[in-house]
Amino acid sequence: MHFSALPISRRALLGGAGATLALTLAGCNTVGLHDQPPLPDERFDYDLAYAARKDGDFDIPAINYKAFDRRYWRQVVDYENREIPGTIVVDPQNKFLYWILSRRKALRYGIGVGKAGFAWSGDAVIRMKQEWPVWRPPKEMIARRPELARYGDDGMEGGPKNPLGARALYLWQGNVDTLYRIHGTNEPSSIGKNVSSGCIRMWHQDVIDLYARVPMNTKVIVLGGDGTTPA
């Protein structure tokens, strides 16, 4: 698969062959849930997108997004693929998550990847979505950090200190939980990096944006370590 980090140009959308592209992307904005957020373009207000906000009972801090490589900002990019619009493609190696818009375009988010994020690859579907989910530390983590044993049964309630962050998408294969999650993070500096724990981390603002786009049973493809689709 091939991608380019360049966001779509509004000028391209307004002239010549860009008119066809504009219609295509306008239609793509219907592949997910209704009333989803607008797609980012060259006039997109990143200060607003990554600003502090209130979400339910919790306060989400602003993201210092300018301190990160621009490629990790939420943006529409060129992305050659063969997937049905609305599919999610996770590329752990390159720290990107793509929400497919068409055979040539995708909405891309930056991610952080923990060890669990490299432990599984393949196709799955979203079988559960949760806002401010409860977190239950795995046994391996409790073994390393015994103080977390208090969360082993009932888990840690959702909130800003919860490692799963503002949203979580749970991936299943048939009736089997893969234990693979796409979720928020209470460590925004981990985006674009390999981190010690967790699956696929996103900034709170980005995982909220993705959550608002994708319905239940959305197909998710997690690429292998070499960046290819598992057989």
TrEMBL record:
A single GO CC term, please? extracellular region
Q: Which UniProt keywords apply?
A: Cell shape, Cell wall biogenesis/degradation, Glycosyltransferase, Hydrolase, Peptidoglycan synthesis, Transferase
Protein's pathway: Cell wall biogenesis; peptidoglycan biosynthesis
Q: Tell whether Hydrolase is among the UniProt keywords.
A: yes
| Record-level GO BP terms | cell wall organization; peptidoglycan-protein cross-linking; regulation of cell shape
Q: What positions does the domain L,D-TPase catalytic occupy? A: 86-223
**One Pfam match, by short name?**
YkuD
Which sites are catalytic? Answer: 183, 199
Matching entries from Gene3D superfamilies are given as: L,D-transpeptidase catalytic domain-like (2.40.440.10)
Example GO molecular function: peptidoglycan L,D-transpeptidase activity
Q: What family is this protein classified in?
A: Belongs to the YkuD family.
Name of the molecule in the record: ErfK/YbiS/YcfS/YnhG family
